[in-house]
Specification:
5-stranded mixed β-sheet, 6-stranded mixed β-sheet, 309 residues, single chain, 47% helix, elongated, alpha+beta
Length: 309
């Protein structure tokens, strides 16, 4: 798999909620904080205003726009800014009580605006690899490159409205598609940044990351990765550190430890077996690296996660 797919797979995103929302007239709805979750939404038709706690300026959402709230901050949606400040917003829990497993919530009469929204829970320490690199709000405006995202949102709304057999599963898949598509689009327009996520937009750095992710147990060297990227050793090492934020071998070690943590938490493999699978010739060498990166020994980590902590 590619690096983004690898890391998202390790996070095991679970769609906790997918629902539609339609409203007419004057309205305002407030959504509570959902710490540790990613919230996403997209406007199928119409327009409204989005205000996110902690951010100074509201955002106008138009048809085809999508937004992500990577840190699960509380937020409000309103028909217009004047209404949002003039009336007490309704609690989303009173608007959506009957659609927690799918469906479309309606507020007032008419369909001046229609939205679909999802909420994802992410698992394990790998979630930090992505979330700390994203801003509190990702706003993706409609454009030619968002055609697939628009199709997904329109298809999701249709499934939520119709409630046909199997629609719950279809909505789950569509929600995951929308999340990945939104991250792709954000990456393509994010500009400069430091971290593995931004490095994916750099063709040469992405080549090196893909090599490490494809064969994490391989005894990679900076020289070999530089050759894969078509660069000199010194130029590659400097650019990798500048774009990813860590030296190549440090990134590789951390990626191996995240893979190891996932295997220890979700399989019955021995520590020695996991160490060997990730390129370590001894359990002790793996344990030293694991404790440095993950903050605890492999044995302690496996025992803690197996107890559901």
């Amino acid at each position: 798999m590619d690096p983004l797919s690898d890391i998202l797979s390790l996070m095991k995103p679970r769609n906790l909620l997918a629902a539609g929302f339609e409203a007419g007239g004057d309205w305002a709805v407030r959504f509570p904080e959902s710490r540790g979750n990613i919230k996403s939404g997209a406007v199928v038709s119409g327009a409204c205003w989005l205000s996110v706690d902690g951010l100074p300026d509201p955002v106008r959402l138009e048809t085809g726009d999508c937004f992500l709230l990577p840190t699960g901050r509380s937020f409000s949606l309103a028909s217009d800014l004047a209404i949002g400040s003039a009336i007490e917003p309704m609690d989303a829990q009173h608007v959506f009580p009957r659609v927690r497993r799918g469906g479309v919530a309606a507020l007032n009469e008419g369909r001046d605006v229609s939205l679909v929204s999802s909420r994802f829970a992410l698992e394990g320490p790998q979630a930090g690899m992505l979330l700390r690199l994203l801003p509190p709000l990702v706003h993706i405006r409609r454009g030619a490159e968002t055609a697939m995202l628009r199709w997904s949102t329109e298809r999701m709304m249709q499934e939520l409205r119709d409630g046909r057999p199997g629609s719950f599963l279809v909505v789950q898949y569509l929600a995951h598609m929308m999340l990945v598509q939104a991250l792709r689009l954000h990456l393509s327009g994010a500009g400069q940044g430091v971290g593995w996520f931004f490095a994916l937009a750099d063709r040469q750095m992405n080549t090196a990351l893909e090599a490490m992710h494809a064969e994490p147990a391989h005894r990679w060297s900076v020289e070999e990765l530089a050759a894969r990227a078509g660069m000199s050793r010194s130029a590659f090492a400097a650019r990798f550190r500048a774009t990813v934020g860590t030296p190549p071998m440090e990134y590789l070690t951390r990626w191996r430890m995240h893979l190891g943590a996932d295997r220890l938490a979700h399989s019955r493999e021995s520590i020695a077996s996991v160490a060997l699978a990730l390129g370590y010739r001894s359990e002790s060498a793996f344990s030293i690296a694991f404790k440095r990166v993950m903050g605890s020994s492999p044995r302690r980590y496996a025992g803690t996660t197996s107890n559901g902590a």
